[in-house]
Structures are given as C-alpha cells and as structure tokens.
Amino acid sequence: MRDWPLLRECCSRPQDSARIAALLYSHPPSDALPRLAEEHGVVAQLVAAIDASDSAPPQVSPELVQSLRAARKAQTVSTLALSAELFRILELLQNARLNPAVIKGPSLALRAYGDAAARHYGDIDLLFRHSQVAQASQILAAAGFQARVPPATMQAGKIPGQYFFHRAQSGSVIELHTERTLRYFPRPLPIEEFFQRQTTLTLDGRQLPVLSAEDEFVLISIHGAKHFWERLMWISDVAAMVHHHPEVNWPRVRQSAARVGAERMVRVALLLAERLLRVPVPAEMKREVAADSACAPMVTKIESWLPYAGYDPPPLAQRALFRLRMRGHVLAGARYLTRLSLATTEEDWSDDPQSPAASLGETLRRPFRLAKKYRRNPDR
Fold it and tell me: What is the structure's pLDDT at 377?
C-alpha cells in the first residue's frame, strides 16, 4: 500500500523529520491519504509530521495538504464540543455522588500525546461500578440522552456490550462501561481495585478522574486485542505512552495484567509498538516478551491486515485462533473463546427480555450470527 510507510513513520517515536521528508519525496502520497489517515485515526500525527518537515515536495498537492488540515481542524472542533459535554455530564454525576473514571478518549489523548485534541475519538467513555448504572442512566436521560438499551431490558439483568446513550440535540454519544460489560477482559475486572488506584489529569484547567497509567495501559492493550489491532491509532497510543512516560511502573502493569489474565495482550501491544513504530520494549518487560514465543507470530499476522484499517479483516477461523492464542495457554484460551462466542449482547437479544426460552435461543443463535457477520466475502 503506497501510503502505509508514511503513516507508520508519522506515528513512530521519536518522529524523524528526515525520514518523513525522504518518504514524501520518494513516495509522494496518493489522493487516498486523507481517508486512510482518518480510517486509522492518525490525522493529527500525519499533519504534525508534514508541518514539521522542512517543506512538502512539489509532488504533494496543496489540495491534499489542505484536506488533511481541514480534517485536523474538524477533529479539534469535535474534541472541544465533547470536552464541554464531558464536563457537563461529570458535574451532574458528581452532584449525585457518582464518580466514574474517564477512559480512552480525552484521558488517553492527554496521557499519550499531552493534548486532548491529538487523538481521534467520537464519544465519551466512562467506567462505572455496575451497581451505579441504573442511577447514572436516569441522570443521563434527564440531561437529554436517549438510551439504546430499554429500561425493561436492564431490569431483566441483561448485560450489553456497553450502555449506549445518544443526545440528538448535540449528536454526543456517551458509553458507560462496568466490570460486567467489559467482557473482553479475560477475567472479571476488579473494579474496586481500579478505583482505589484512580488518579486525575488536568484538562482545560479542570480535574479529570482517570484510571492509573498502569491500569489504563492494560485496558488499551485489551481493547486493541479485542479489535485485532486493525487501526494504527491503537498501536500509536501504546507507543506514545511508552515513549513519553518512562515513569510507568511496569511491575504494576504486569501485576494488573495478571489480575485480569491479559499478560499476553500486554506483551503483544509492546512488541507491536517496537516492531512497527520503533519504540523499544521497556527494559523491565524485555525478558518476558522475548520468552513468550507466541507473540512474534501474532504480531506478524497483525501486520498483514493492519494497513487496510479493517477493510480486509482476518477470516473467521483466524479470528477464533487469534482469540484463543491471545489468552495464553490452550485451556484458558478455549474458555475465553467459548465465553465470547456464547455471551450474548444487545445484537442477539429478542423482544422478550424476561423469557428464559428467549435467553436460551439468543445464546444458541449467537455463534451463527457471528459466523455470518465475519464470514469472508468470497468475491473480495
């Protein structure tokens, strides 16, 4: 893919302006670059890299650069609007003595890049204790948000992939996550431990409640694995956190990962950052990353589909094998894959959330729905 080396170089740490300039001259970007950068979520990194180079070569059209800067500006405007919405909602929740942690989105942008607008995100993600979701939902409804999950379904005890709320007036989306919705954690998230280690970051002069850097690193490693690392943005986040935060306590990362069964997910994340973006695996983690013989083959597989930003996903059998191997040893992998294959979400639910027969049918139908959803198009 013609533009892929440039995107990788723009996300590498530290950025090498000479390499970027050489790529711009030797492989002038195509007109598809702005769209590819948006699909990978790295418009900000690309624009910053082009602006930092001495000068764009004549082969790079002014229209292309203008298109990228327009996309960057739109991302900044969207970020400002989401930040305002975030502070409004946090105030309502905190007044009700609810204190969620902000995850991903602005929290990760601040941590990884030092700028809340330097990373693409289109919604607000909040981590709650599951026992507080009903109260939080009522507050969001009073604030003008509509829930995707009906109250009757919540009362029936069904657990969605996330509690999704949309505000038509502003277009804002808020997703609530709990220790029960984060099903891609191999073991249940120890929610009280995560909140005990909670800290704050400063955004626009205000305090943002966030997870510890170590717990957030585990979370983004699991999130990347959940999505098969199909976007460069997620690897860029890992690389930027490692590069910009040498103070991260890696023994604590290791401990947090072991607590939720995500040891290999963390190792793969670190190896991806090293192989693709030149950020060395931290010294405290080198030995165990090297000792895990499954990591390198998995990274090689990820490299084969990554440039296409999810448009050429691995086939169903390969996805299943990836899930199995990502968990670690065979028995743990088999349990993890089975749970993900049978644990229903809102896409599987019937119209009668109270019916035991409906629940059984949902469980039995789920593997077939997933097979249909992820079956490779034979014409591709």
Answer: 47
How many whole angstroms separate alpha carbon 47 and alpha carbon 116? 16
Q: In this predicted model, what pLDDT tens digit does every residue of 106-152 receive, in sequence order?
A: 999 999 999 999 998 889 999 999 999 999 999 999 999 999 988 87
CA 105 to chain centre: 9
For the full predicted model, state whether its pTM sits above 0.90. yes
- Spans in the chain with pLDDT lower than 50: 357, 377-380
3-state SS assignment for residue 175: strand
Q: Is 179 exposed, middle or buried (0-12, 13-18, 19+ CB in 10 A)?
A: middle
Contact between 235 and 277 under an 8 Å Cβ cutoff? The reply is yes
> 115: closest CA among 28, 16, 201?
201
Which residues lie below 8 Å from residue 103, measured CB to CB, with a gap of 6+?
125, 126, 127, 177, 210, 211, 216, 219
Residue 355: its pLDDT value, please?
52
Residue type, 202: T
Read off the tokens for 328. 């670690």
- Architecture of the CATH domain 75-211: 2-Layer Sandwich (3.30)
Q: How far from the centroid of its chain's Cα atoms is residue 155's Cα?
A: 29
- Quick check: 237 and 112 in contact, CB under 8 A? yes
Q: How is residue 293 written in tokens?
A: 């013989």
Domain ranges of the chain: 4-60, 75-211, 212-312, 315-380
Rounded CA separation 249/285 (Å)? 11
Per residue in 31-51, pLDDT tens? 899 999 999 999 999 999 888
DSSP category for residue 166: E
At 359, which helix (H) or strand (E)?
A: helix 356-374
> If you search the block for the tokens 């702005």, which residue do you land on?
34
